[in-house]
Amino acid sequence: MHRSRQTRVLLFVLFLPAFLFATTIPIACDPKVTEQTGEKAPETTAESTPEEKTAVPEDGGTPEDGGTNETPPTENQPEQPTQASVEESATKVNTPLDATPSPNGDFNYYTAVLAPNADEPDVVAGQGAVFKVEKGKPPQELAKGFFSPLSLVVSTDGQTIFVADRGQTTPEEEDVDSTKTGGLYTIPSAGGQPTLITTTQGYQPRGLDVVKENDEDVVYFSGVDPADGQAGVFKIKASGGAVTTILKGDPLRDPSGLAVSSTGKIYVADASADATTMSMVYEITDGKAAPFTDPMRVGYPAGIALTKNGETLLISGLQAQENSSVVYLVKVADKSITEFTQGISQNSESGGVHRAHNSNTFAWANSDTPDADGVGGGTVYTIKLP
């Protein structure tokens, strides 16, 4: 994640649907992968051992002709957590940028870029939309008209969806239309017209998280302070009001995905200061940022989420030497890292990841653009960890 990648993503949203948005982080575990067909997905049981592996055909189906689901382990395959599963919840989607589960993880919401209108193939501005997808059902469009909906989260009661729309401005633009400068929007979870939280206008928000503080939902977001142009991390009550600055300026350059712990610590993925494809993940405590991991490849928009107990940080990205999606599982206590790749490693455009408020159920997006035939190439997944 770096300046040139950010520019590529923004240009894609505005002008070139052929560009790709993401480089996400693979998660290493040993789930069973089932395409969303409406049938019950097989689950890994507590009796499963590290030697039991799931054989997944290339088309994502299940073994045929009486074949088993077990394959021998390979020497290079990392040890995977048991009782983990991965399931496709929406396939052939046009550029899903981010995904988040309902509070109990029963279904997913996601942001995406709609396919260009046949009558206006070059017009993509305002084609961002929010969808809901339930198992066995096609995606349901809830709202559209966004310019660059990089992230979304749902309120703790499941009634409201918050969308971070970065807008369509660039530093070179003159006579900027104020409606295009980005901000946080709310929409009812049942669908409806987006409503701008007016005090966030111009912040060009990227990443989002919602936590409950003093029995009230608070939205944390990354973006840029419109008053001075400095990148930072901010928060605002879900009901609206003034924006509070958590941290802005150095060392942050282009903060994206973030996650907030129950103790108030904030983890945020930030573009590197140099022109590499590597990014930093910082831990912010009491308004001060310190490196949390070594530089790593993450997607744009980057995805970060915490497990329910706050002990493990999930970072969506790409493996260092190849464009293969992975979710990194980082133990907060000692910063040890394992990789979750089963069921998602065939992807190469990692997007956002979020956890359900009430369980270790995560939604993860592969933000591929449409295939050559015009059919969407992206996928939204449900990942369940122990």
Description:
- There is one protein chain.
- With 386 residues, the chain is mainly beta.
- It has a single domain (3-36, 72-171, 179-384), classed as Neuraminidase, CATH 2.120.10.
- The chain is built from one helix and 27 strands.
- A five-stranded mixed beta sheet has the order 1-4-27-26-25, with no helix packed on it. A four-stranded antiparallel beta sheet has the order 5-6-7-8, with no helix packed on it.
- A hairpin with a 5-residue loop joins strand 23 and strand 24.
- The radius of gyration is 19 Å and the shape is globular.
Quick summary of this structure?
The protein is mostly beta strands.
Please state the second-level CATH architecture: 6 Propeller
Total of helices: 1
The SSE string, one letter per element, is HEEEEEEEEEEEEEEEEEEEEEEEEEEE
Number-wise, the strands total 27
Find the structural class using helix and strand composition.
mainly beta
Unreliable stretches: 1-78, 171-176
Shape: globular
- CATH C-level class is Mainly Beta
CATH topology: Neuraminidase
Largest sheet: 5 strands, mixed
Q: Report strand order across the widest sheet.
A: 1-4-27-26-25
Q: Span between N and C termini? A: 30 Å
How many structural domains are formed by the residues?
Answer: 1
Radius of gyration: 19 Å
What's the arrangement of secondary structure elements?
Blueprint: H1 3-14, E1 33-34, E2 53-54, E3 70-71, E4 85-93, E5 96-101, E6 108-113, E7 128-133, E8 140-146, E9 149-154, E10 160-165, E11 183-188, E12 195-196, E13 208-213, E14 216-224, E15 231-237, E16 244-248, E17 255-260, E18 266-271, E19 279-285, E20 288-291, E21 298-306, E22 312-318, E23 325-331, E24 337-340, E25 350-355, E26 361-366, E27 378-384
Parallel strand pairs: 1-4
Antiparallel strand pairs: 2-3, 4-27, 5-6, 6-7, 7-8, 9-10, 10-11, 11-12, 13-14, 14-15, 15-16, 17-18, 18-19, 19-20, 21-22, 22-23, 23-24, 25-26, 26-27
